[in-house]
Design goal:
The protein has one domain: Cupredoxins -  blue copper proteins (Immunoglobulin-like, Sandwich), CATH 2.60.40.420. The chain has two helices and ten strands. The strands form two sheets. A five-stranded mixed β-sheet has the order 1-8-5-2-3, with no helix packed on it. The chain has a five-stranded mixed β-sheet with strand order 4-10-9-6-7, covered by helices on one side. A hairpin with a 2-residue loop joins strand 2 and strand 3. The N and C termini lie far apart (49 Å).
C-alpha cells in the first residue's frame, strides 16, 4: 500500500491535466520560444491547401530563427512544431475536439491570407517535424526542420 500512493501521485502530476506550469511555457526537446533580439535569420513558409512551401528547412543547433508563415490557401491552417508522435496526438485531438482553443507556444493559427511570425530557438541537433494538425490536413501538410550540429 505504501508504494501505491507515491505511484499515484507521480502519475497524476506527470499528466498535462495536473501540470502546474503552462504547457506553452516549458522548454521542449526541440527547443523553446526564442528571444526576438537574438534572431539570426528569417525563414519564410507558405501554406497552401495541401502543403507547406518549402516542406524542409535547415537550421543550426542553438540558432534562433523567425518563421514568417503566410496562409496562401483558401482554408484555415495551423503550423505546429513538435515530434511526429506529438503531432499525431494533436491531429487526433483536433478531430475529437475541433472547437477547442489551443495556445501552444509553438503553434500558429492562420486564416486565409493571414501572415504570422514565430520566433524559436532550436536547442538540440536532430529532426523536428511540423504540420497542420487540422482534420483533413494532417496527412499532406507536413514538413521537417533539420537541426544541424553546431
Amino acid at each position: 500500500m505504501n508504494r501505491i500512493i507515491p505511484l499515484v501521485i507521480l502519475v497524476l502530476f506527470s499528466t498535462n491535466g495536473f501540470s502546474a506550469a503552462s504547457h506553452s511555457q516549458l522548454e521542449h526537446d526541440f527547443g523553446k520560444p526564442g528571444d526576438a533580439d537574438k534572431v539570426s535569420r528569417i525563414i519564410k513558409l507558405t501554406q497552401v491547401d495541401n502543403m507547406f512551401l518549402p516542406a524542409e528547412v535547415t537550421v543550426t543547433e542553438g540558432e534562433t530563427v523567425r518563421f514568417v508563415v503566410k496562409n496562401g490557401g483558401n482554408h484555415k491552417h495551423e503550423m505546429l512544431i513538435s515530434s511526429m508522435a506529438e503531432l499525431k496526438k494533436a491531429a487526433n485531438m483536433r478531430r475529437m475536439y475541433p472547437d477547442k482553443e489551443h495556445t501552444e507556444a509553438y503553434l500558429l493559427q492562420l486564416e486565409p491570407g493571414e501572415q504570422k511570425e514565430l520566433v524559436w530557438q532550436f536547442s538540440t541537433a536532430g529532426t523536428v517535424d511540423f504540420a497542420c494538425p487540422l482534420p483533413g490536413h494532417f496527412k499532406k501538410m507536413r514538413g521537417k526542420i533539420i537541426v544541424e550540429k553546431k
